[in-house]
Design goal:
The structure holds two protein chains of two kinds. Chain A is of the alpha/beta class. Chain A is built from 13 helices and eight strands. Helices cover 47% and strands 12% of the residues of chain A. Chain B has three domains: 126 residues, Fumarate Reductase Iron-sulfur Protein, Chain B, domain 2 (Orthogonal Bundle); 183 residues, Rossmann fold (3-Layer(aba) Sandwich); 60 residues, no CATH class. The radius of gyration of chain B is 26 Å and the shape is globular. Classes of the chains: A alpha/beta, B alpha/beta.
Chain lengths: 252, 452
């Protein structure tokens, strides 16, 4: 770690930029605390995921080209979102004249917790966070990027976020009844299948509330925005924090 | 009706929707627990997936082997290009035998071909002998699940139905009592049928034999009492060798219901003296699907229903919300291949959570195919409005300046507008959810100020 000071570009998803700047700030500060040289390339836009998931991947060529050109020269690109990272790696259309750069880039883009555990090779983080925390496993990180073992598979259990959060002094990690069920956000699904989306969100919330969770955390603000939106509408006191916010607050 | 409309309707009865979700989750959980008692579970899935890949690549020659070997065993083979031809074959056999009443064990293929109404129109009585299927048949409904056909009904509803149809005691909801009543009723039908129809779970190319899996033994009961056995089989049900069965029988019941094995796995090789076995081999869109590179491996499906039990959408919207013979995630990638226009909302009835792909015993990349169908559907059925707004969005996202302006406008609007406008009924997001509080500056603005 001593001599390893990677040149990291922050990739801040559009809704984090617009609605949750605090998550961007926490991610930046956390990576710096962990010894990275972090910069935020100006001119970032949305990665194109909402369009692609709605069936218009072919209309994201311009967006994708912009993304590749913006980030190609960095050692690593790190985002506080599993969903956007998965999109960039798996669902962005091929740009013929940038194929090589695109392939190289896809090996350098990481979700925040996997970057810390797999690239920075951090085994444990020291810090304090005295709260009862429930973890929302966002599906694209969970089953797309394999940030944690999936309950469907017969595999040795692991969870990259838990590896980082679990060592914090005082943090009480809550076991849920359904460890990795979808919250029903799903991008445009949240509005095209509104009734289902709300039902799924309420069910996820109930699981946390039933286990007296104080703070729901997760790696994707999109799911959190959905869950938080339902919780605040229903007057629930439960709080929401991105994993980056907890880690940045807990370690000094 | 579209999937969102049907789902909204289903969710109106909140207590029942919750019960439906929990009932299917119980099955999914049972499947999880039993699959984890098999150390080589994931290798089994790999192997099954590879065997099915091999089948799809060599389907034509395996089918020829199967036909040749089955003929040698004394089985009669009929080929059907589509549902209509399948139904005609079955009707012709029944007419030749002068048969007016048949029993049928569970076969999703015959549902797909709408065999029951076809035969009933010709004056033939069709009795589904699977208990769940008999229940939905009484109600004139299709199955709502491919393994658990009546899973949408509660005990009380079945009690009322049996009281009406089978004259059971009013209000008696005891499952044992109700099942006994069904047994007595079905026994008569079994004894009266000269022809029995079954589906096929696996057809073995190397031997020309086939296997039918049931939990109730109803396929066997029907077939052994009848003179003629008609087995209706989709052409993708082929396995190369008998020994491959070991892989699939271990996966099937564990994935379907969390049982170690289906109670009856019956192997049919050749007819008993004086009896006949017919196999109707049905294409009905399967070769068209095989030709679609991105979607062909949907044909690996062994109809275990695990993707339905795990799907958070299926559990909360019910099988009928899909409006297709095979509901749930696998149905949503099969049905658009049969009629893209009719089933255009199905690939969108998903959050792409990927749970279906992880439970699938033959490792079909279901959620990735849902994504791919979306790309296809928008090409032909793109509603003008949606297409336009998506194009606009791409314009915004590829230009940093346009993104900034539109983002600032949106945030300014959210801060300035009264809640009554933000949570207008036309704003679907805000019907049951609040929007996040709008921060005074974006991350980009913060960064510029604080890290010059």
């Amino acid at each position: 770690m001593e001599n390893f000071k990677p040149n990291v570009a922050l990739f801040i998803p559009c809704y984090v930029d617009q609605f949750y700047p605090k998550v961007g700030i926490a991610t930046l500060e956390l990576l710096e605390k962990l010894g990275c040289k972090v910069s935020f390339p100006a001119g970032q836009t949305c990665c194109g995921q909402p369009l692609a998931n709605a069936g218009y991947e072919r209309d994201t060529i311009g967006t994708t080209r912009h993304f590749v050109e913006l980030f190609r020269d960095f050692d690593y690109v790190v985002a506080p979102s599993g969903s956007c990272v998965l999109h960039v790696k798996e669902h962005s259309p091929r740009i013929p004249e940038l194929e090589q750069e695109q392939n190289d880039l896809h090996h350098k883009v990481f979700e925040l917790t996997e970057f810390i555990t797999d690239i920075l090779k951090v085994e444990r983080l020291e810090g304090r966070f005295q709260h009862r925390v429930g973890y929302h496993a966002s599906c694209h990180g969970q089953r797309g990027l394999r940030l944690a073992s999936s309950s469907e598979l017969n595999q040795i259990p692991f969870n990259k976020a838990r590896k980082l959060l679990g060592n914090l002094e005082g943090l009480d990690w809550v076991e849920l009844d359904r460890t990795d069920e979808c919250c029903g956000f799903g991008g445009t699904f949240a509005v095209t299948e509104e009734a289902l989306s709300i039902r799924m969100g309420k069910d996820r919330l109930e699981d946390h509330l039933h286990h007296q969770v104080e703070i729901i955390t997760g790696g994707d603000m999109s799911c959190i925005m959905h869950l938080e939106g339902i919780a605040t509408r229903e007057g629930q006191k439960i709080k929401f924090m991105h994993v980056a916010e907890i880690l940045n607050q807990a370690i000094t | 009706m579209s999937h969102p409309e049907n789902a909204t309707e289903f969710l109106k009865d909140q207590a029942k929707a919750k019960w439906h979700d929990e009932t299917l989750w119980f099955v999914r959980d049972k499947r999880d627990r039993i699959s984890k008692t098999i150390p080589e579970w994931e290798q089994l899935r790999d192997l099954a997936s590879q065997i099915k890949d091999n089948v799809l690549v060599n389907l034509a020659s395996y089918l020829e082997d199967f036909e040749r070997n089955a003929l040698q065993n004394g089985i009669k083979i009929h080929w059907a290009a589509d549902a209509e031809e399948h139904n005609q074959h079955v009707l012709r056999i029944l007419q030749e035998k002068n048969c007016k009443a048949i029993v049928k064990s569970k076969s999703i293929l015959t549902e797909e071909c709408h065999l029951n109404p076809y035969l009933e129109k010709e004056g033939i009585e069709v009795v589904d002998t699977d208990l769940g299927e008999r229940i939905v048949q009484f109600l004139n409904q299709p199955p709502s699940h491919i393994v658990l056909p009546a899973i949408h009904l509660k005990k009380g509803e079945i009690s009322d139905l049996f009281h009406e149809k089978l004259h059971t005691e009013k209000g008696n909801e005891d499952p044992y009592y109700l099942t006994q009543a069904a047994r007595i009723h079905l026994r008569e039908k079994f004894l009266g049928a000269k022809v029995a129809i079954t589906g096929v779970n696996f057809g073995i190319a190397e031997t020309g034999e086939f296997v039918v899996c049931t939990n109730e033994g109803n396929a066997d009961m029907g077939v052994h009492l009848a003179d003629v056995h008609i087995a209706c089989m989709g052409i993708e049900k082929i396995l190369p060798r008998r020994k491959d069965l070991g892989v699939f029988l271990r996966l099937l019941a564990r994935s379907a219901t969390g049982q170690p094995i289906t109670n009856y796995n019956s192997h049919f090789r050749s007819p008993s003296p004086g009896k006949e076995i017919h196999i109707v081999l049905v294409d009905n869109g399967r070769t068209a699907q095989l030709a679609r590179e991105k979607f062909k491996n949907s044909l690996k499906c062994i109809r275990c229903g695990a993707c339905m039990n795990t799907c958070p959408i299926y559990r909360r919207s019910g099988g009928f919300s899909y409006g297709s013979t095979v509901p749930g995630p696998i149905g949503s990638i099969l049905s658009p291949g049969l009629d893209m226009k009719k089933h255009s909302t199905l690939p969108f009835a998903s959050t792409l959570c990927g749970s279906c792909s992880d439970v699938c015993p033959v490792k079909i990349n279901i959620h990735e195919q849902l994504y791919e169908w979306r790309q296809e559907i928008t090409k032909t059925h793109g509603e003008f409005g949606k297409g336009l707004s998506m194009k606009l969005a791409n314009g915004i996202f590829k230009s940093p300046l346009a993104y900034k302006i539109s983002g600032n406008l949106m945030r300014a609007a959210l801060r300035a507008l009264p809640d009554s406008m933000i949570y207008h009924p036309l704003n679907t997001w805000g019907k049951s959810r609040n929007l996040p509080e709008t921060p005074t500056e974006t991350f980009q603005q913060w960064y510029k100020k604080n890290r010059p």
